[in-house]
Design a protein that fits this description.
By secondary structure, the protein is of the alpha/beta class. Helix content is 36%, strand content 22%. A hairpin with a 6-residue loop joins strand 4 and strand 5. The structure holds adenosine-5'-diphosphate and magnesium ion.
Length: 914
């Protein structure tokens, strides 16, 4: 009998935004299953068993709850400790790779999508057990069940005989099944956030009469902003808070409560949450601190709170957070304790730091950034940035998403969501912790090149997230994106009334990859017609200090309308104290007149800051040209990412996965728990099975064997010592190149084996002449998963650091971008008369490495260094390869594919003795 599969416990969000826990059934469930069965209506029972059935016998209960999990599986859905649904499969007797599935959902919980989620998890589990197909028998009039199968995106085959459908479908992950899952996830998570952002009624547990306390400030903010529903202070010691009748506990409130803020000391929080569950509250914002952020005791407390939240189907922000707010006039929810309620607008924001959140709201007002919703996430025990992304994806009030992140809960899910959402709405992120890089101890080139930050950069790059290093930059780019369209390209016009700042702006733009094109004669002529003869009509357009409102407005109009540029930067230096307001008005008028044509940025170099006329016209204004250039460059890069095709996963149909796995497993048994490097023979077999072209080679234990091996290889050979101690063989003289003739082979054998203290024979390898040497590698990041690296230059890669990283899996576009991103890769194009390389073959190599990493999750590190890139049409040849593996523990080999709709996976202790 196999162990209880405790990795398969999930908390999931349902269609209506409620949550439930799915877990494998266990023997202790017999009583619960019995109670469940007796609650289920007779019609539902009939459709499940095709006959009336009033009870389950003890034998049936025993059969249904005692499983050999490699043969059968059943997931139960739990709500408030009771079973509310069961989905199960049994392998067919005559066809073990096919299993029959069946579902039973308690009547009160039907229509919530529980069956669909049960099917999804059963399918994932079945796949891990090598079950290839499911079969279901469904009564012809059981529409709900037929719809469930159809909506799951699986390709069905149906056959109707005697009023019963036989439905057959494969368990393999089709694109349709995946997108159905993702769609479900989006709708369900967004629905679950509604009670938090649009509550009909709010309670504040710990509302205090003291205006200095957090509970007091929060309650006052809610009142002052004019929350549109009823507000209930909860305070056992005060009958009234701020003239509002208070209740001793949330349960005493006579009317329903959607959302509760909790501002009581940590030890009382669990009790308050318990009461909220009893009251039927659906959303919680726990402000109280003293949880996982203070250490182990707090972590236990947080775990207890989370357990109540999950088992009662609520959603929770925090704990240890500053609150939430929604500026929508339909709610006017100011659920935070800071002093500022920001202006309404199209920017949604979440912050992992509460204090920073307060500062951000304060600046937002000053910087012309309007907020739609704001969330201080705190410890993110339940609601994560990923959940918020799913809510904002379809939120009509939000055009730009801002994230201040300190850590990722589930980076792979983040990558998947950001990639999709970023195509519709820009995501701007400040990720702190850039300098904590490089703590990784590694013995391969790839490992030592990859720092944590490299992974974050790769993630953001692939997902189109706009990464900013500082808060200042974050605000700069946000005020541009929130107010102006995206640039269609890199060409910028600069319009100024002073030469110096124009030149500074030109430099700042150019150094960030933007261009200042020469204007056509025609455009220059039109500009000239508005200007005095001393002005310069080239780019930057220097209107000189005498330029007045009319000149600004006319020239701005020309530049916004021309096809010769993609963006306009207007610089104004108030040379004289008078006339400033008029010029601001003129620029704002010009912007309004040509609104939406292309992005406009203003640089207003004045210590008083930007005048309000710009703010009202939605024109972002910056104090210095560098800040404006930085914002525009980020917007241009994002625009380019959005225009580029999405890239696709490449499937190779010549992969010999079984052969690679057999080779791996033959050696895996001898590998220690921390993992180990594979023998050269095994490495060769694995790479060859995946169509990765490795130079012909054989191992030899003596001079004679080396001579025999060399004779089998056409042309000159290479001898390399095999030695556990030598990580880089050539460093110690363990490699002899371009060897020809028996005597030379013998001499080389002696030399290379003498170079180390622990020779274990040699590898005799085909000598590959010419070509460019590149490195292709892979290393595993603990939170981001496999990273794939590419660089040029063999031994110099570490020194130069000219390396590109991407997170696995790679698309075709990732592979070609990785190569072009590396500066020295221009050598492969035949730089300055040098020999060009076979770039398509190199791209294919990267994609095949990604396929290998996918198929063998045991691989934790890989160094192909060097790969020799031969001239076009002649392919590549791997001449040195190392692979490190570790055993993947447990019966369940986690797929590297993200399993969607799994909102979070939690630890669950197995039943005693189970
Ligand atoms: P290590 O990385 O352990 O020092 P390599 O096997 O990478 O050892 O060999 C060192 C260098 O020798 C390579 O970077 C490459 O320049 C050259 N080399 C190795 N094998 C071959 C080969 N089969 N054909 C041509 N050059 C080779
Ligand atoms: Mg090498």
């Amino acid at each position: 009998m196999s162990d209880y599969p405790r990795d398969w416990v999930f908390d999931v969000v349902l269609k209506d935004g409620g949550t439930t826990r799915l877990r494998p059934i266990r023997p202790e469930d017999a009583d619960g299953l019995h109670r469940f069965f007796r609650r289920v209506g007779s019609d539902s029972v009939y459709q499940r068993f095709f006959r009336a059935k009033s009870d389950l016998t003890p034998e049936e209960l025993q059969y249904f709850t005692n499983l050999d999990y490699s043969e059968r599986m059943a997931f139960v859905a739990i709500h408030e400790d009771e079973i509310i649904a069961v989905g199960r499969y049994d392998r067919l007797e005559d066809q073990a790779e096919i299993a029959e599935v069946a579902f039973l959902v308690e009547d009160a919980h039907q229509g919530r999508g529980i069956g669909t989620l049960l099917l999804q998890h059963l399918t994932n589990y079945a796949r891990s057990q090598h079950i290839t197909g499911f079969r279901a028998y469904v009564l012809a009039d059981n529409r709900a069940m037929l719809r469930l199968f159809r909506d799951s995106g699986y390709h069905l085959q149906r056959d109707l005989t005697e009023g019963i459908y036989t439905v057959d479908f494969p368990t393999s992950y089709s694109d349709a099944a995946r997108s159905a899952e993702w769609d479900r996830e989006r709708r369900a998570v967004a629905a679950s956030m509604m009670p938090i952002f649009y509550p009909q009624s709010v309670a504040v547990i710990g509302a205090s009469r003291s205006p200095a306390s957090i509970g007091g400030r929060l309650f006052k903010n809610l009142l002052a902003a004019g929350f549109t529903g009823p507000l209930y202070p909860v305070n056992p010691n005060a009958p009234v808070v701020n003239s509002v009748k208070a209740y001793p506990t949330v349960v005493d409130i006579p009317d329903p409560v959607d959302l509760a803020f909790i501002v009581v000391p940590a030890p009382y929080v669990a009790q308050a949450v318990e009461e909220c569950a009893a009251k039927g509250v659906r959303g919680l914002v726990v402000i109280s601190a003293g949880f996982s952020e203070v250490g182990d005791r707090g972590r236990v407390l947080e775990g207890d709170v989370l357990e109540i939240v999950r088992s009662s189907g609520m959603r929770m922000i925090g704990p240890n957070c500053m609150g939430v707010l929604n500026t929508d006039l339909d709610v006017r929810l100011d659920g935070q304790f800071g002093p500022v309620f920001p202006p309404a607008g199209n920017v949604a924001m979440s912050s992992q730091s509460g204090a920073l959140g307060i500062a951000i709201l304060d600046y937002a007002r000053q910087l012309n950034i309007g907020i739609s919703t704001f969330v201080s996430m705190g410890n993110k025990a339940d609601v994560s940035a990923n959940d918020l992304l799913l809510y904002w994806e379809d939120d009509p009030a939000t055009d730009v998403i801002l994230l201040y992140l300190e850590s990722f809960g589930n980076p792979r899910r983040f990558a998947r969501l950001a990639r999709r959402i970023g195509r519709r709405k820009p995501i701007v992120a400040v990720k702190s912790g850039r300098s904590s890089a490089g703590a990784r101890a590694a013995s391969s080139h790839t490992g030592s090149l990859a720092s944590l930050d490299v992974a974050v950069d790769a993630l953001f790059h692939q997902a189109g997230v706009i990464r900013t290093d500082t808060l200042q930059e974050m605000f700069d780019v946000t005020s541009l994106l929130a107010n102006q369209p995206l640039p269609d390209g890199k060409r910028v016009a600069v319009l100024t009334n002073a030469g110096g700042p124009g030149i500074l702006a030109a430099d700042a733009l150019a150094s960030r990859g933007l261009e200042l094109p020469e204007f056509s004669e025609e455009l220059q002529g039109r500009l000239r017609s508005h200007l005095s003869p001393e002005a310069s009509t080239r780019n930057p357009v220097d209107m000189i200090a005498s330029a007045g409102p009319a000149q600004y407005q006319a020239c701005l109009g020309e530049l916004l309308e021309t096809d010769e540029v993609d963006a306009v930067m207007v610089i104004f230096i108030p040379a004289a104290p008078e006339g400033t307001d008029e010029i601001v008005t003129a620029i704002a008028a010009g912007a309004r007149e040509h609104e939406g044509t292309k992005p406009l940025l203003t640089v207003f170099m004045h210590s008083q800051g930007a005048p309000s006329g710009f703010r009202e016209a939605g024109v972002p204004s910056f104090p210095f040209p560098e800040a404006a250039a930085g914002a525009l460059a980020a917007a241009a890069r994002y625009g380019a990412w959005r225009r580029r095709p999405e890239g696709s996963m490449v499937r190779f149909d010549d992969l010999e996965i079984t052969e690679a796995r057999t080779a791996l497993e033959a050696e895996l048994g001898g590998v220690s728990d921390d993992g180990g490097w594979l023998q050269p023979d095994t490495v060769d077999r694995i790479l060859s099975a995946f169509g990765l072209p490795i130079a012909a080679a054989a191992t030899a234990d003596s001079e004679d064997e080396a001579v025999a091996a060399a004779a089998k290889i056409e042309g000159p050979v290479v001898l390399k010592v095999i030695s556990p101690s030598a990580v880089h063989k050539s460093d110690v003289g363990g490699v002899a190149l371009d060897i020809q003739g028996e005597e030379a082979v013998r001499a080389a054998y002696r030399t290379v084996t003498a170079a180390v203290s622990d020779p274990r024979g040699v590898v005799v390898q085909e000598f590959v002449a010419g070509g460019h040497e590149v490195i292709v590698g892979m290393t595993e990041d603990p939170s981001f998963g496999p990273l794939i690296a590419f660089g040029l230059g063999g031994v110099f890669v570490e020194l130069i650091g000219d390396v590109a990283f991407r997170i696995h899996p790679l698309t075709d576009l990732d592979a070609s971008e990785m190569i072009s991103q590396v500066k020295s890769a221009r050598l492969l194009e035949g730089y300055r008369g040098g020999e060009p390389g076979d770039v398509p073959a190199l791209e294919e190599t990267l994609l095949r490495v990604s396929a290998l990493v996918e198929a063998l999750p045991e691989i934790v590190e890989m160094d192909l260094n060097p790969v020799k890139v031969l001239p076009p049409g002649r392919g590549v040849r791997i001449v040195d390869a190392r692979i490190r593996v570790r055993r993947v523990t447990g019966a369940f080999v986690p797929s590297r594919k993200d399993i969607p709709a799994v909102i979070r996976k939690i630890r669950w202790d197995p039943p005693q003795g189970g």
